[in-house]
Design a protein that fits this description.
Blueprint (H helix, E strand, L loop, with lengths): L1 H27 L1 H4 L11 H27 L6 H21 L5 H20 L5
Helix pairs in contact: 1-3, 1-5, 3-4, 4-5
Amino acid sequence: MIAMNTLLKLLVLLPAILFAVTGIRWLVAPAGVAPEFGLTLDNGVGLSSQVGDMAGFFLALGICMLTALVSGRRSWYYPPIILLAITALGRILAWLLHDAALALDLIAPEVLVAIILLVASRRLPDKA
């Protein structure tokens, strides 16, 4: 059981770091990260929205996940689960309703990490 919990913590830690680094990249080098999401950078207020919204999204994911690991409080898993689930749903609705490409390469990791977080929230001890 200890080995399984350690593996689960590692499965939470790796995407948490990736999300946090992605958020920092949006702040310091958006031109390098935007193409990874199929985006071209806008200018003016559009660029401000892209950088602020994307950095905020990814940093919130990473910070909440890291806080869950460090504090041992299950409640910190729920915000990233919600964010990832709504993002995946939004991508699917964009495909169904707005003629967007079906971005399975982006949806799959969002769903997978949300499931990992849900399992972690149920399995890892809660230090409430």
